[in-house]
C-alpha cells in the first residue's frame, strides 16, 4: 500500500496582514511549508501534492521538482481542496492518503506515529487531536459517552455545549484512499461557511460504521500559524528544540533563550554561545569556538577554536583560531585564515587575511589581499573605489602598515615593507622598503602666547 501526501497550502492567511503568503513565513529560518514538507518526507511518500491558491506562483517557487501542485482557484473549503488533489493523483483506492496543513511547522515525528497507528488498526481514518485550555479556532472532537469518536464539528457550527469541548482536531489525517474518495463525494455545504469541510468526512465514516482512530498529540506539536503572534510562539518552540538538541550534543549556552540558531545551522561539540547570538542560513561553527555576546552571522563559516564577539558576519569565512571583534563588520567575500585577527571597529569586504595577519582596530579593508603575519595599523583604509570601479590592494607577507595609512588602490605593498604613519600611498612599495608620504612638520615658537593675546583683545571689544 503506497503512501501519498496532500499538503493544504491554499489559505490566504488574511490575519497575517502581509504580502507574503502565510505558508512562506519563516520559523527558525525555514518556511512553514518547508517544515511541513520535511515532516511528510519522513513517510517516504510515493507522491506529494501541494494545494495552492491565490499566491500559487510564490509557493511553487520554493518547491522542488518532485513536488506537484494543484490550483484551488475557487475557495470552497478544505474538502474541496482534497477533492482537487485526488483528481490530480488519479486512482488512490489502494493507497493511504495523508493530509497535512501547510502551516503546522512543529509536527516533527508525529506523522510517522500517525501512519503507524493507522496501518496497525486498519482504521478508515486516523487523525491527530490535542487537549487545549483555549480551543479557539479549532474544530472540536465529538465523542460518545463511551469515548468513541463520532465526528468533528467546526467552531463556527458548534453549539454551546460542543464549544466547551477542549479536545480539538489538528487537521492532520491518514485516510484509507477508497473510504476518503467515497466520503468526499457525499459532502455538502450545509454549514455556516457554505464550504465543503474535510472534517465532515470523519462524521460520515462514523455513520457508515467504519473504524475511526484519534491519536492524542502534545498541544505544542500540532500548533498552526494564522497570525504573527502565533508565528512568534511557534518560532520560540522550534528554537528551544534546536538549542536543546545542540546542548545535548555538547554545546554550551549561557542563556539558551537568548541564542537564536536557524534550523540549518551546524555546530561542533564544545562550542560556546553567550547571549545575543543570531546565526542564520547555512552558518557553521567549529568545535570549541566561542561566539558572542551579541553576534549576528548569516551563511558564514566559523572555524575550530575561533573567537567572535560583538560583531556582524555576512557570507564570510573565519578560520581556525581566528579572532573577530569586538564591533567588527565582515562583509561578503571576506576570508580570515587560521590565527588571523579582525579586531575592534574593523570593517572588511571581499578581503583575504592570510595566516597570522592582524587588523587590530579602527580600519577598513576592502578588496584587499593581506599576506601572512602582516600587521595593519589603526586607522588604515584601503581606498578601493574611484567612483566608477573597485580596485585591489595587495599587502605582502610580514608587511607593517603604519597607523592612519591611506592605501589608494590599485597598489601593492611588498613583503616586509613598511609604511610611515599618516602616509597616503599611491604607488607600489618594494619589498623591505619604507614608504613615507607626509608634509614636513613646521613649528612656530610663541604661537600659544600670541593666540591668547588675540582672545583677550576680542573679549575687551
Describe the protein:
There is one protein chain. The protein is built from 9 helices and 39 strands. It is α/β, with parallel strands linked by helices and about 450 residues long. It folds into 2 domains: about 220 residues, Spore Coat Polysaccharide Biosynthesis Protein SpsA, Chain A (Alpha-Beta Complex), CATH 3.90.550.10; about 180 residues, Hexapeptide repeat proteins (UDP N-Acetylglucosamine Acyltransferase, domain 1), CATH 2.160.10.10. A hairpin with a 2-residue loop joins β2 and β3.
Quick structural gist:
The protein has 461 residues and is of the alpha/beta class. The strands form seven sheets. Strands 12, 13, 15, 16, 18, 19, 21, 22, 24, 25, 27 and 29 form a twelve-stranded parallel β-sheet that branches. A nine-stranded parallel β-sheet has the order 14-17-20-23-26-28-30-33-36, with no helix packed on it. 44% of the residues are buried.
Number of beta strands: 39
The low-confidence parts are none
How many structurally independent domains?
Answer: 2
Judged by helices, strands and strand pairing, the structural class is alpha/beta
Question: How helical, in percent, are the residues?
Answer: 10-25%
**Any idea of the CATH class of the largest domain?**
Alpha Beta
Mean pLDDT: 95
Which overall shape is indicated by the principal axes computed on the Cα atoms? elongated
What is the radius of gyration computed over CA atoms, rounded to a whole number of angstroms? Answer: 32 Å
- Helical element count? 9
**CATH architecture title of the largest domain:** Alpha-Beta Complex
- The name of the CATH topology of the largest domain is Spore Coat Polysaccharide Biosynthesis Protein SpsA, Chain A
Q: Whole-Å distance between the termini?
A: 104 Å
Q: What is the CATH H-level superfamily of the largest domain?
A: Spore Coat Polysaccharide Biosynthesis Protein SpsA, Chain A
Tell me which oligomeric state these chains represent.
Answer: single chain
The biggest sheet amounts to: 12 strands, parallel
